[in-house]
Amino acid sequence: MARRDQPMIEFSGKKVLILGGMGFIGSNLAIRLADLGADVTVVDSMLAQYGGNLANLDGHQDRLHINFSDIRDSHTLSYLVRDVDIIYSMAGQTSHVESMHDPFTDLEINCSSQLSILECCRKFNPQVEILYASTRQIYGRPQYLPVDESHPIVPVDVNGINKYAAEMYYTLYHKVHGMRCTSLRLTNTYGPRQHLRDNKQGFVGIFLRLALSGEQLRVFGDGQQLRDFNYVDDVVDAFLMATGREDLHGGAFNLGHGDKHSLLEFVQTLAEFTDVSYEIVPFPPEHKAIDIGDYYADFSLFSDKTTWVPQVDLKSGLERTVNYFKTRQNLYW
Amino acid sequence: MARRDQPMIEFSGKKVLILGGMGFIGSNLAIRLADLGADVTVVDSMLAQYGGNLANLDGHQDRLHINFSDIRDSHTLSYLVRDVDIIYSMAGQTSHVESMHDPFTDLEINCSSQLSILECCRKFNPQVEILYASTRQIYGRPQYLPVDESHPIVPVDVNGINKYAAEMYYTLYHKVHGMRCTSLRLTNTYGPRQHLRDNKQGFVGIFLRLALSGEQLRVFGDGQQLRDFNYVDDVVDAFLMATGREDLHGGAFNLGHGDKHSLLEFVQTLAEFTDVSYEIVPFPPEHKAIDIGDYYADFSLFSDKTTWVPQVDLKSGLERTVNYFKTRQNLYW
Fold this sequence. Notes:
Two copies of one chain form a homodimer.
Chain A: E1 15-19, H1 24-35, E2 39-44, E3 65-68, H2 74-80, E4 86-89, H3 96-101, H4 103-124, E5 129-135, H5 158-177, E6 180-186, E7 188-190, H6 203-213, E8 216-220, E9 226-227, E10 229-231, H7 232-242, E11 252-254, E12 261-262, H8 263-270, E13 277-281, H9 285-288, H10 300-306, H11 314-326, H12 329-332
Parallel strand pairs in A: 1-2, 1-4, 2-3, 4-5, 5-6, 6-11, 7-10, 8-13
Antiparallel strand pairs in A: 9-12
Helix pairs in contact in A: 1-7, 2-4, 4-5
């Protein structure tokens, strides 16, 4: 899908490194950058429980370099970052519940490794531009809506704390060392190549897999919790449009979508394209403890600077998502 | 010095663990708790570059248990925390400049190890009360004065980021796991047993050592930067008065002092007790990059809850400090 209406820098010939590039958003970004003529290297640890999946780059392997390695390994990282123009830091442990069961792995991947990326770049490629995938999870339970970037940061899980620490490193390394870092705070992202294999990655992935498998969904609470949803192509747009923008460096910007939907509306929209059935059940305690209630973002700060606005509404995004996965179930779960 | 005017719980017979207990504040706390009849175990890594110093507990060894180990070692930690009533988490990498040179050591000690303490306690002693020594450094450059706990958190160095991540862990483990954790955000603390050996620990220690050695001080900038200063006995009071207070758990509270002084006033007060000479010089770049300008705290939140107010003014505190060190230079630098 060409998106020629979006202003962005010339990517042709640019050397790009995508950390976590076999994962959901990273692989979509990698394919788009290859389409734009960039010289793309994908780095991924392929940790079994995370989003890396060979199927995500199926048919594109010849247009990309693929380097299997773990961002926790600073020795390989220090070579990978050299002579690169742009790094997209998309690798992460993304399960909120898992971060409470195994906080140290979350700390290593989401916090220590990000510091390691910055230190490697500071030493071996201080001019590189780094775009970091942060998360709305750092805000915790919204104290007002929509949530803008001035909202208090009160994470409700270890994942939110570690992601925020990493974001602060990126901001700090810009201020102190002049490094060219920008963070985008992603909201619920969905679409082709999403990690659907297990129940650890939030309700969107779980609902998609169960709906596509014809299994019954369980909606926690009353299903009236509001969310904003970004189709993955819109998120890829945001990363591309944030690239090369000196005025964004050192900043952290919300993504979001003008539309908001309840969880029930999400399920009902999904029902237009799948045979879905659901029941409404009380919150399990470990989910309740880290649930954030309603959330939707004010993304005008980013929109005003870049003209980015999401192009895909929930209905059309879910239709495309279902179409992608319905012939590929065996590759994803 | 007895401080019987301060309300606090009965410490006699309480089993207390002091992490970083051979360091500056930890050792002062250990001695006071021993005076109060507590069963005190001091844990310290004695890392050469930090504040641990055998001289700090000189004459008190028979009243305390001393366990040399590193809080980064979660195996020993998991034994040390068992059957303890109270843990004072005072161990830290405290040099702001050093945190920029070696951010990973700062991360390990100030962030990962604090998570490790919490995980060990959650598994082996979930009822323990934990008092965490946080820092004003998390606020960064004040956006208004005095700085209260609602002030934005914008750390200007890696140390501030890691200390804040740790504080967020303590808050989170209270909220999610019901653990009994309270953080105090310390301002400039000075007094007997302070780490004076090198130039990495901030201007107070540097000025004290140079003044006591009869060497010339260098005041950066114009010397008009304002600070609040807490004498260590007041900080020890604050930790003791915060202990056993369920209403503080999950919170983070500023310490501070009603009086504020410029750096020049600090030097001039020091000159009343030492032969001091100084010159005013421009900020070295690496200090300027992480300097925070004026800082003084609003500590009314903590004061209102506990009745704590500092008892010692700068003049009398510096006099006691100079008296402590002037016969012990060979033990401290």
